[in-house]
Write a structure and sequence with these properties.
Layout (H helix, E strand, L loop, with lengths): L11 H6 L2 H11 L2 H9 L6 E5 L2 E4 L4 E4 L2 H4 L8 H9 L13 H13 L4 E7 L2 H16 L3 E5 L8 H5 L4 H4 L9 E4 L4 H10 L2 E6 L15 H11 L3 E5 L14 H4 L5 E4 L11 E6 H8 L17 H16 L2 H22 L3 E7 L2 E6 L4 H6 L3 H22 L1 E2 L1 E3 L2 E7 L7 H17 L3 H8 L3 H6 L2
Parallel strand pairs: 3-13, 5-6, 5-7, 7-8, 8-9
Antiparallel strand pairs: 1-2, 2-3, 4-10, 9-10, 11-12, 12-15, 14-15
Helix pairs in contact: 2-3, 5-14, 6-14, 7-13, 10-11, 15-18, 17-18, 17-19
Length: 466
């Protein structure tokens, strides 16, 4: 290959000036063509240029409501002033110095120890949720001396190799096998299956979400986590609770496990820990677990490094985010607004057959759509069924965005479920507007095929041409 000459690099100013078409072409050429194509087909390739609270604006000045909420990263909404102010306060401080102790990380850990359940006290920080999962799995092996992990089918914990090994979706696992050995899947909510797996496998940990978010907002059976806690204790297996999406007020309490009345051995955090602005993840565990796993002497300290973990900017932003969430009692707001929103959406379920179920807790809500097919499926040799199962929620999301200015997306492990996960600062007026938009959309489109034809933007015709 010849040496590149006369290199033309794009600048931040160039990026700011890009229009929708230019972004699409650049994304296609340099990131992923398939994702760019699908985004354009279903109408979610808008060029957004401004964001504040629950609102975002596109290049033409059109206003939208964000009901995706960064998959749970935007509990405070977009660009919260308290988080931005904290970043300004540390803008002259060293971002990271490995030759010094990270004082902002220490303060953040102190605060997290005050707000998390029970005896959870000692933190480890990194940059992302999946990295935090990796850290928790390593902690479990170090603490127990055991190798195996138990996880739940349809659960989601990330896409790095260790996290992927305990993510319960074959679609994401199979292309990267062999993964980490000794990972045993069981059904979510099934304590008998958990006890059997614990009895037959010497497991270091059982990792689980309080609510399976990417599976389609799947709720646990009543009393499930109390029995999980008992079983893990009986078999000397660490109970790792992944609160990456459910934490920091999302489900109506600061952490979802509070509503279950349980304390995990390890609680994993990320997403809204960074206030919706900076990437930060980590876990918190008890002091005895951390001391046994990594000791209190200096010989194992280098096992806990993460280059950007707990850096000054991220930790300061997280300190401000936690302070705001607690100070404004956003967990209580999520509980009250979530009950209101869920009841309104259930009213739509009674009215429209296309809505199979609405479920959730706080402001983590999933709307499951009924699959369609019948004669159209027969005439299209199965194409409509494929479209229904894989793209229906996307197309409805596209129509909600284009015609009503509301951003929604499907859940990753169940594309037939629309996630409704607005910032906890969302107003009742904005919740009402979303419900009214769904009412108008489903009233206009009495069946799936009309929605496909009008909001699919070519998806149907492209499938039929294959």
């Amino acid at each position: 290959m010849g040496e590149k000459t006369d290199i033309k690099l794009l600048t931040v100013d160039d990026a700011l000036k890009m229009n929708r078409k230019e972004i699409l072409e650049t994304y296609k050429n340099y990131i992923h063509q398939g994702r760019a194509t699908l985004s354009a087909l279903i109408g979610i390739d808008t060029n957004f240029v401004k964001a504040e609270g629950c609102k975002v604006w596109d290049e033409d000045g059109k206003e939208y409501l964000d009901f995706v909420g960064g998959y749970g990263s935007l509990n405070l909404g977009h660009n919260h002033p308290a988080v931005i102010e904290a970043l300004h306060k540390v803008e002259s401080a060293p971002v990271m110095l490995q030759s010094a102790l990270a004082k902002f990380a220490a303060v953040l850990a102190h605060n997290l120890a005050r707000i998390t359940p029970g005896d959870l006290q000692t933190c480890w920080f990194c940059s992302t949720g999946t990295e935090a999962v990796e850290g928790a799995l390593k902690l479990a092996r170090m603490y127990t001396g055991k190798k195996n992990f138990i996880y739940c089918l349809n659960g989601f914990h990330g896409k790095t190799m260790g996290s992927l090994s305990v993510t319960g979706k074959k679609k994401y696992q199979e292309p990267f096998e062999p993964l980490v050995p000794g990972c045993i899947p069981i059904p979510f909510g099934d304590t008998a299956a958990l006890e059997k797996a614990l009895r037959e496998n010497d497991a270091a940990a059982f990792i689980v979400e309080p609510i399976q978010g990417e599976a389609g907002v799947i709720m646990p059976p009543e009393g499930y986590f109390k029995e999980v806690r008992r079983l893990c204790s009986n078999y000397n297996t660490l109970f790792i609770l992944d609160e990456i999406q459910t934490g920091f007020g999302r489900t109506g309490t600061l952490f979802a496990c509070e509503q279950e009345g349980v304390e995990p051995d390890v609680l994993i955090m990320a997403k809204s820990l960074g206030g919706g602005i900076v990437p930060i993840g980590g876990y918190i565990t008890t002091s005895p677990i951390m001391k046994k796993a990594y000791g209190s002497s200096i010989d194992k300290t280098t096992m806990l490094t993460s280059t950007f973990g707990g850096n000054s900017h991220c930790a300061a932003a997280a300190i401000a985010a936690v302070e705001t969430i607690v100070g404004e009692n956003l967990a209580r707001q999520a509980a009250e607004k979530g009950t209101y929103f869920l009841n309104k959406l259930k009213g739509l379920q009674e009215k429209f057959g296309i809505i199979k179920e609405v479920r959730g807790r706080g402001l983590l809500i999933g709307m499951e759509l009924a699959e369609s097919g019948g004669l159209l499926d027969f005439l299209s040799a199965g194409s409509v069924k494929k479209l229904s199962s894989e793209f229906l929620s996307s197309m409805i999301g596209g129509e909600m965005q284009t015609n009503y200015g509301i951003l929604t997306l499907f859940t990753l492990n169940n594309p037939n479920v629309l996630r409704l996960e607005p910032p906890l600062t969302v107003s009742y007026e904005q919740l009402d507007y979303c419900v009214d938009a769904f009412d108008k959309l489903f009233s206009r489109h009495k069946n799936f095929f009309k929605i496909a034809l009008q909001s699919g933007k070519g998806v149907v015709s492209s499938i039929f041409r294959k």
